[in-house]
Fold this sequence. Notes:
With 144 residues, the protein is mostly beta strands. The chain has one helix spanning 2-13; strands at residues 32-45, 50-59, 62-74, 79-88, 91-100, 105-113, 121-128, 135-143. The longest helix has 12 residues, at 2-13.
Amino acid sequence: xxxxxxxxxxxxxxxxxxxxxxxxxxxxxxxxxxxxxxxxxxxxxxxxxxxxxxxxxxxxxxxxxxxxxxxxxxxxxxxxxxxxxxxxxxxxxxxxxxxxxxxxxxxxxxxxxxxxxxxxxxxxxxxxxxxxxxxxxxxxxxxx
Length: 144
């Protein structure tokens, strides 16, 4: 279970988020896409089915923010959830990502944001790197 948790965390951190289609709200026709590469800094188990960790986020090789995440496994359902807060310049974006089994691609939704990202809605997709378990590719697709 711990290995699965660490794999999921590493997968999330190393995953590229692929964006699903986002329908803009009335009056806002601009859809934004933000792509990040997240590198796991540290993570640890908080119990048999729960974990937490931090990561550094880069874009084009430059550090653009940090994120803090927690996750919980539901072994009987063969699924889990990861809650992530991405601290970027001028604000934060909070997301929840769902995963099933040992999947390498996860999808979820943007819950809310602060600062520049206040009023944000959209989707998040993450993909774990196959060759580097502490690297995740994240794609946020959103509008205000």
